[in-house]
Amino acid sequence: MGRAKKVVLAYSGGVDTSVCIPYLKEEWGVEEVITLAVDLGQGAELEPVKQKALDSGASISLVENAQASFVADYAFPALQANALYENRYPLSTAIARPLIAKLLVDAAEKYGADAVAHGCTGKGNDQVRFDVSIAALNPTLKVLTPAREWGMSREETIAYGERFGIPTPVKKSSPYSIDSNLLGRAVEAGPLEDPWTEPTEDIYTMTRSIADAPNEPEYLELGFEKGIPVTVNGEALDPVTLMERINEAAGRNGIGRIDMIENRLVGIKSREIYETPGLLVLIDAHRDLESLTLTGDLTQYKQGIEQTYSQLIYNGLWYSPLKEALDGFIQKTQEHVTGTVRLKLFKGNCAVAGRKSANSLYSMDLATYGAEDTFDHKAAEGFIYVWGMPTRVWSQKRRDGV
Fold first, then answer.
1. What Rg do the C-alpha atoms of the chain give, in angstroms?
2. pLDDT of residue 367
């Protein structure tokens, strides 16, 4: 069943992606499998993963640290759009997929592969994100999806791997499926499949419980330039360090847990637990700074764009014409979103305690009710008369029976 001669496989080191290596070669006639493991800050040691791929039959095992690009080129543009899927989930996992897809395509071109492959099943969102992103970046590349097509149970998959020297995995003590990166963690399956079951504390690693959070509030000052966070408490930081610092501060104060019923692209509902402390705090701060520096009509119009933008990311359309066009709009809105936001972190809550900007549209002279008030109160009567005219005409017509 030969489909390709040389394949670049997205590799995690787990059972499915390890079994993909001999399966592609034995069942589909692939001559050479190159694996690519991407370091997105998941905290795992990738050198053993690299060796495992070689032991499983890979000809070349690539490991790439993409944390800097992950934050600067993917997370921060989504932040500028205040991207929250279904107004709750800041897309920490979804944002990673277009980057991995890009690295797969780049590796395929570098090594002369005629196909790429991944280990996604047919039930989740990631298969869509990978397949569509790869097609957008290089439509001539074949995309092989062995785990979606082989029809093996978990036990059968393990047994297949053992035939080719892939060791049986140590029995999992945790029933959960977990995906981690620098932006957060996604936890599902096991007891969580019952939406009535309360998550236990053992599933969380990035955030403290509210009970264990400090008893005194912590203040955090975040500085932005054109909608991009650049400083924490006045200290300029690179994107990765900045993300780590905010994750730590929010997490130790019990901020960043999400428990939601999510509508997947494939049409089913799933119960998802997320830990995204840094992203949620950044979105709160960024949105507040926008309220200070953008006009009212722009702020309100942008909210609709943000919803569309979030859906595009979730649905695997990062590299789409609509997303590209919306990027142009978002970037234009960020030209004056520069300033500092002071946050108060306390017992699971993130409250904005202050904000300032050289581009602020807030006028004390107009807003004050004190003696310094310069607002022309007499002008209000004429404004209200003209503003309310359509309503008065409509009401009078109804009263006249027209």
1. 25
2. 61
Amino acid at 318: W
Per the CB < 8 A criterion, the answer to whether 136 and 13 are in contact is: no
Distance CA 236, CA 229 (A): 9
Strand 177-181 and strand 228-232: the pairing is unpaired
pLDDT of residue 279: 97
Q: Which one-letter amino acid corresponds to residue 169?
A: P
> In the sheet that 177-181 helps form, which strands lie side by side, from edge to edge?
177-181, 184-188, 269-275, 257-263
Q: What share of the chain is helix, strand, coil (3-state, %, to 5)?
A: 45, 20, 35
DSSP conformation letters of 299-315: HHHHHHHHHHHHHHHHT
353 φ/ψ angles, rounded to the nearest 5 degrees: -105, -10
CA dist list (Å): 54 to 32, 36, 42, 57: 12, 11, 21, 5
Distance of CA 72 to the CA centre of its chain: 13
Residues involved in catalysis: 16, 97, 126, 177
Q: At what angle do helices 296-314 and 277-293 cross, to 10 degrees?
A: 150
pTM for the whole thing?
A: 0.91
Say how far apart CA 270 and CA 272 lie, in whole Å.
6
The stretches in the chain having pLDDT less than 70 are 1-3, 170-174, 365-370, 373-375, 402
Please give the annotated binding residues for L-citrulline, written as ranges: 89, 125, 129, 177, 262, 274
**Domains annotated on the chain, with CATH:** 6-66+91-162 (3.40.50.620), 177-294+336-356 (3.90.1260.10), 374-399 (no CATH)
Sequence-distant (≥ 6) Cβ neighbours of residue 221 within 8 angstroms: 231, 232, 233, 234, 340, 341, 342, 343
The pLDDT value recorded for residue 171 is 62
